Amino acid sequence: MNRPVDHTLQDPPKLPFEPLIQKNAVITEARWVRVSLTAAALIFLLGFLLMPLIAVFVEALRNGIGAYFEAIVEDDAMAAIRLTLTVSLIAVPLNLVFGVIAAWAITKHSFRFKQLLITLIDLPFSVSPVVSGLIYVLIFGAQGWAGPWMSEHEFKVLFAVPGIVLATTFVTFPFIARELIPLMQAQGTDDEQAALSLGANGWQVFWRVTLPNIRWGLLYGVLLCNARAMGEFGAVSVVSGHIRGLTNTMPLHVEILYNEYNFSAAFAVASLLAMLALLTLGLKSLLEWRHGNELAATRRH
Amino acid sequence: MDIQIRNIHKGFGSFPALAGVDLDIASGELIALLGPSGSGKTTLLRTIAGLEFPDTGQILFGGEDTVALPVQQRRVGFVFQHYALFRHMTILENVAFGLRVRPRHERPSDKDIKRKAAELLDLVQLGGLEARYPTQLSGGQRQRVALARALAIEPRVLLLDEPFGALDAKVRKDLRRWLRELHDKTGYTTIFVTHDQEEALELADRVVVMSRGRIEQVGSTDEVYENPATPFVFDFLGNTNILPGEVREHHIYVNGGPQPIADTAGHEPGPIDIYVRPIDLRIADAGVPSFDVDVLSTQRTGPVVRCEARAVTSGAVIEIELPHLHHDVPALKAGARVPLRLSNFSVFARGKPISRQALPDVVANAPAEYRERARAG
Amino acid sequence: MPGFGLTLGYTIFYLCLIVLIPLAGVFVKAAGLGFDGIWQVVSSPRVYSALRLSFGAAAIAATINAVFGLLVAWVFVRYDFFGKKLLDATIDLPFALPTAVAGIALTALYSGNGWIGQFLEPLGIKVAFTPLGVILAMTFIGLPFVVRTVQPVLEEAEKELEEAAASLGATRWQTITQVILPTILPALLTGYALSFARAVGEYGSVIFIAGNLPLKSEIAPLLIIIKLEEFDYAGATAVAAIMLVLSFLLLLIINLLQGWSRTRSGARA
C-alpha cells in the first residue's frame, strides 16, 4: 500500500534509559535508610577488606625502601620466588589441559553420572588445604604406601619439589574445569555440529570452533588457578619440609621470616604476593567488564 | 468508585511518557487503554496505581486527590503482566497476603483471612487448589490467582496490565469472556491495558486510544471503530487504505475521479486523505459514485478473498477484502478494470501530521465535538 | 561429537590419580585404626577442643558473613554510589590474596599495638592470639562466598514482586522480610554453607592470628600438622578423616541447597 510517509505515525523512540530503581520511590527505601546502609557496607568493606591490604605495604616499607628491596633480592627470597614460579608453571598447565578435556567430555556429550563427575571434580574445593597435603604424606611419607619403594630408588617426592607440585595441583584442580563447564554447557553443541557437518574433523572443530568460543573463560580460569597456585600455603606447608633455598615457596618464606620476627622482610615478600593478587583482581575485573557475556554466569571461587 | 484524571504529565528524562492526559471514568465501568508500545498506556495505568508519580496533574478517586497517596494506601488492585505471584507462598497465602500485611488493628482474624481467601479462590474458580504453589499452575490459572489476590484488598479500582499478553490464543479467549462476566458480577471499576484492538473492542465498555503520551480518542467500542477521530485511531484499529483526494465545492473527490463520491460534512476545500478499510470497498453499480481500479492480483486465504488493485487515476495501490462467496468476487480477476464504491470511510485533512502540536488536548467525554474539531484540521 | 572415549577416559584417569586415590588413602588408613582408634584420638581433650574451635568459629564467622554479605550484596545491587564498580572488584580480594599474607596482615592490624588493635585493647577486647582472632580471619576469607552467591539472585529478583506487595498494602519492611528475603533465602543459605566449609578447613590466614594455644586457640588443621611433625600419622589421619566426612556432608547440603535455589528462583510465576 502506498502510505504517505508520516514519521509521526511511527513508534516513538525507545526510552533513552531504563528508569533507575532509585527514581522509583515505590520499591526502594527511605533516603536515610539507603544512606546508612551504604555507609555501613562501605565502612565494613574498607575497614575489613582493604585495611589488611594497605597494612601489607605499609609494614613492608617500614624500614625504608632499601630494606624492602634487600629482603626481596636476598638469596633465599629469590629461590622462593623461582620455586613458586616453577611450581605454578607446572601445576597450571596440568590443570589447564585437564580442565579443557574434562569440560569437553562433560559438556559435549551426554552420559550417566555426569552430575556425580562434576561433584567429584569440585571435591578439592571442600577439602582443607592441610588435609590436601596430608593425603600425599600418607602415600609418599616414610610410613606411606609408596614410601619404602621411594627411598629404595632414591626418588624424593615428599619434602621436595614433586610433592609441592602435587599438592598445588590438587588444591587448584577444579579451577579451570569449573569455569569452562557452565560456559560450554550454555554454548551447547550447535557450532560444533555445524562444523562437523561441513567436513571438519574433531581436532579442527576444537581448535577452530570451540577454543575461540571459550578463550576468555579459559583465560579467566587460568588467572584464578594461577593466583591460588602461587599463593597456596596450607597444603604446601605440609609437604614441603620448609628447607630454605630448596623447598620454600614464597608463602612459606613469608611464614619463616615472620616467625623469626623479621617482620619487614616478611611483609616485603608478602607485598609481592599482594601485588599478584591485585594484578589478578584487575585482570579479572577487566575480563568481566569487557567479555562478561563470554564468561560463565556462575563466578565463585 | 469513579475516577477523574486531570492533566497528567510525566516524563522519563527528556522523554515525555504522558503529555497532558485527561480522562473521566464512571463507577463500575470497564475501560480499555489501547495503544502501541510506547504510547504511554502502561505508564498511565501505573500512575493511577501509584507505582509511578506524575510530574503534574491530579488523579481523583471519588473526588479525593490521590497523587500524594503512596501505593500502599491507595487501595488499588493491580494485576501485573507476568502476574508477579509470590513463588514461596501457596496460592491461598498469595491471596491472603494483602489482608495479612494490614496493621494489626485493621487486620481480620486469621480464620477470617483464610475464609476470605478461600472464597476469592472459589470466585475465580480455583477452589481446591489452595495448597498449590504458583509454579504448579498453568498460565491462565496464575492469571486468576493474581486477580483474586488483587480483589482481596477490596480495591477501589482494579487495574490490569496486558492481562492476556502472556497467554496462548485459546486460553486468552476463554479468559476474556470470563473476565467480562466477573466484572459484571463484582462491579469493580476496571481499567486494563492492551495493545490488541480486538481485545479492547470485545471486552471494554469504552476504549481509550493512546499514542505518544496522549489520548487520541475516547469512546464506546462502536464509536471509535465507526467514527475514528484521527488517522491514527483509524489506522490502529484495523487494516487501512489511504486514497488521496480533495474537497471541492462541498463534494469529496477521489484524486482524478470524475464524479464526487460523497458530500462533505463541513470540510474546508483542499487536499484530503480518504481512509477506507479493505472490507468497506465494493464494486459499484452503474450510476453510483465510483472510481476505477485495475485489479493486480486476487488470492483466497480461507474464508476471505484478498484483492490488490491500483487506482487508475491516482496510482494508489489498495487492498480489497471480501468473503469468498460474495457476489463481487467473480469480477475481481487480475487484469480487470472495475468501478469501486466506498461503503464507509473517514476523511482527514492532508498534510496535518498527527502530532501533539497539531492536535488539541483531548477533552474527555466529548468525542463528537472533538471529532469535529479534529476533522476540521 | 568426537573424542568422547578419549576425553572421558583421561578425565577419569587424572581425577583418580590426583584426587580420588590420594583421598581414598585417608579413609583406608583411618579404617585401619578402627572406630575405637579414631574415637580415642578424637576424644582426647586437645583434639576435641580443636575440632570444636574450628567448627564453632566457622559457624560464627559464616553467620557474620551472612549478615554483612547480605548487606554488601544489597547495597551493591540496589544503590548507586561513587566508586561502586571498583569496590565491587575488591570484594574478591580474600579469594585472590594468599592466605598467609592475609594472616600476617590481619595479625599486624589487630595485635595489641596494631592499627585497630590499639583501640580495641583499652576496651578489653583482645582479638589477636584469642579465639576472636580465629573468627576474624575466618570471616575475612569467607565474605566473598556470601556476596557472590546472593548478588546474582538479588539482581534477577523481579521488581514486579515488590510492586505487587506494595500495591497490596505491604510496608517496605514487610515487603523486604516477607517477599524479598524468602526469595533469596536459598542463595543466602548456600553462601553460608560455602563460607562455613571454607572456614572450617582454613589454615593459612588463621594460624598467625590465632596464637595456637592448645585447648584454647588451636584449630584442627594445625593439630594435623603438629601430629605429622610428631610422626603421629594415625592421629593426624583420624582428625583428617573426621574433617573430610564433615566437609563432604557440607558439600551434599550445598548441592541440595543449590537445587532448591534453582527451583525457587527459576521458573517465572
TrEMBL record, chain A:
Keyword Cell inner membrane among record annotations: yes
Native source organism of the sequence: Hydrocarboniphaga daqingensis
Function as written in the Swiss-Prot or TrEMBL entry: Part of the ABC transporter complex CysAWTP (TC 3.A.1.6.1) involved in sulfate/thiosulfate import. Probably responsible for the translocation of the substrate across the membrane.
Lineage: Bacteria, Pseudomonadati, Pseudomonadota, Gammaproteobacteria, Nevskiales
Bilayer topology: Multi-pass membrane protein
Principal subcellular localization: membrane
Transmembrane portions of the chain: 37-58, 78-104, 116-139, 159-177, 263-283
Gene Ontology CC annotations of this record: plasma membrane
Domain of life: Bacteria
Annotated compartments: Cell inner membrane
Name of this chain's protein: Sulfate transport system permease protein CysW
Coiled-coil regions, chain positions: none
Domain (ABC transmembrane type-1) ranges: 81-284
Keywords: Cell inner membrane, Cell membrane, Membrane, Sulfate transport, Transmembrane, Transmembrane helix, Transport
Pfam family, any one: BPD_transp_1
GO MF annotations in UniProt: ABC-type sulfate transporter activity
PROSITE patterns linked to this entry: ABC_TM1
Subunit structure: The complex is composed of two ATP-binding proteins (CysA), two transmembrane proteins (CysT and CysW) and a solute-binding protein (CysP).
CDD domains assigned: TM_PBP2 (cd06261)
Keyword field contains RNA-binding: no
Automatic annotation (TrEMBL), chain B:
Protein name: Sulfate transport system ATP-binding protein
Keyword DNA damage on entry: no
PROSITE patterns: ABC_TRANSPORTER_1, ABC_TRANSPORTER_2
The UniProt record lists the keyword Translocase: yes
GO molecular function: ABC-type sulfate transporter activity; ATP binding; ATP hydrolysis activity
NCBIfam families membership: 3a0106s01
Pfam families the UniProt entry points to: ABC_tran
